[in-house]
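User: I've been going back and forth on whether these two constructs are worth ordering. Before I decide, could you fold them both?

Assistant: Sure. I'll take them in the order you sent them. The first construct and its structure tokens:
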Amino acid sequence: MVEIVLAHQVDLATWRAATRHYVQKQVLPESITWRVAGKGQTPWVLEAPDSADNDAPLNLPRKLVTAVLEALQAHHPGRFELLYRVVYRFTHGLLDMENLREDPDIQQLRELVQSVKQETEQFRLAFSTFSNQHQSKSLQYTPQNYIVEANGRFCIERNAQPWEVMTPYRRMWWDGNQLHFAAGEAEAAHVSADMWQADGQGMWQGYPNTVLVPTLEDVAQAASLTSLSAEAMDCRACSLWQPAKRTVFGEGVENTPLMFVGEQPGDQEDLAGRPFVGPAGQVFDKALEEAGILRNHIYVTNAVKHFRFTWRNNRRLHQKPDQESVEACRIWLDAERRLVQPKLIVMLGVTAAQSLLKRPVTISRERSRIFQLNEQCSGLVTVHPSYLLRLPNEEAKAREYARFVEDLRLAHSFITQQSD
């Protein structure tokens, strides 16, 4: 009988190495036992490490690999045996591929995957709500499955500020630069500190991010800005998600009468995970204050949710988003409008105006007048605050800034009259 000792509940690296080795040695599933290491115990390694070099990669379908990675997070004592058995049977042609739905192992695998997916969505919603509140840096959460590690990247993308997630089995925290792991209170007595010091960062680097790519139905059914934002973190609708660090979603008040739409996040927004926090955001905040508008009473977002840039001299320089990205992100902007239900949308710059109006726009012709968008909402076009930063001299900057403030005052006056 072969015994495999895993370092922790989601020790993918050890499970994968052992499975790859013993499946190819044709060791039967019933001849292997699996368990998680207790305090002072060391995880499994091959007695002859060099023999691992002779193990060829297992040729598995992507769909099966994805299911295995998700099911490994399930709180089920027999999951390691089940997953080994499924991989073994597939590799050696023992699965009836025409009747997979009736196979007991495959049925159980699907149940574990569904359980993990459901809790992943619940955890992400809880983390998003926690991040939006800005009141505490620590989230207390009690998961039914071992889903914390696989959502580390999601949490960083959702909240770039330092935070901590405390669960009975795992503590995870982000210090603004690195992600760290330690045993939770319930597991601390059973896991040695040395194991965590050696394994914490390796586990983060080695365990894949759980990606729940949103569907149109997911977007349409989102019942709050928090849940919509959580869905958007895994958006893959255009290519910008790859170079950018994170999705930068809108923020502000739900059901507010005043909504502002910009172009896309910039370098500072991409790092912070919040819209309008860089140089243009500082100009925007100053102008809002002069116009009598409180930022925490409005909703602010962008037409495109990822930062498009080019590298130059080790700096990320803004590039205007292409039409593909504008079109891809419109589902998010439409959903934000549905949930915010603004009476007036202020379009900051050409990209925002063209995304909302769905036609070519010249700012000088459209600017500084309020017009009807639909029966429930009006629109106002003005410049983007970054335009003011690019003006060549102080006189032009002062003149255009004053005009920008007047546009915002026009928006404030309109909303005030609507509420009277």
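The second construct, handled the same way:
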Amino acid sequence: MISLLRDQRVRNTLLQVLYVGSLVAMILACVMIARRNLAEQGITSGFDFLFKSTGWDVNFSLLPATANDPYWWYFLIGIINTLFLGTTGLILATIVGTIIGLARTSSNELARLLGRTYVDIFRNIPLILQVFFWYAVITHLPTPRAAHEAFGILLTSRGLYVPVPNVGGLALAATAMAVIAAIALPVWLGRTSRLSRPVGERLGVQFAGVAAALACAVIILTAGRLPDLPPLDFPALQGLNLKGGLRIPPEFSALAIAIAIYGGSYIAEIVRGGFKAVGKGQMEAALSLGLSPWRVFTLVRLPLALRAMLPILANQYVWLMKATTMGIAVGFTDFFMIVALTINHSGQTLEAIGILMAGFLAINLSLAAVFNRINKAIALKGNQLRG
């Protein structure tokens, strides 16, 4: 035994076993103490509460919801609401950040000044203050009787009302998938190695893919149309409120705008840094080959800048997805608020917080995995890495 303890590897192994064993014992002791304290307060631990009726309603849901639904269904609603808000915010923040980032790298001095002013202002104001500001602005808009109207869209203090097709829910979801396919197909067709055509000669195939996806969307909308109803359901004033159309509540609008503006200020700096990372020599070489400035931008500058931007952009997207928890400040029923309400009504604090952590881990790890896969796919290989 003494001879074994003289071995450095054996001592290191024993120390590691002792450390892990102490950690496991401490965790077990905490769990036992927590169970005993909960039992003394009459609170039963476990996940049986997930199948009990909630007894309360949610003010925003993309899925049908009633007070008789179980907790697990409300958790699903919360996750979908968070994903919907996060996706909307990320798309808007990317658009805003790209525009401001391009302005920051522009040769126009006024554009650079405006871009820098935007970043300096909105990047240094806390996100929660921006959420409160936009929520106050939206809730102080005119009442439904004095709503601002344009092209059938009504803007009021109770939310934004937009026309929607009179189609079934499944048909609407299938149409959305077809539209997403119309956006993703040209990108995939332009990069896949399964086509024998050269990359520069795939424009016709890409247009055909977009046309086919959009044609499928039109067919689905036509087939799923509800009978005896007009093609579009327009919002209209009935009494003191608006009926018809799709209502986007003020809470969602305020959060989406705040995330877009705040996140856009950070993404703008990422975009600026990505374009600054592209060497002037590479662009000058492309121009010397007779390429137009637009083709130099699309074929040389933008792809190289994307490779520099993507790792930092992935971290920013993960952070903005976590920022959706600000919804509880204005009453938006995202995943975090559903968990908070569950704790108040059921008393299952540890279980609900565990579900919250697991949910955000799954969302953010999935988002990071997608971006890591994209980053690996567009990374320069072999001798291309050498300057």
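Notes on the second construct follow. DSSP finds twelve helices and eight strands in the chain. Residues 91 and 305 are 19 Å apart (CA to CA).
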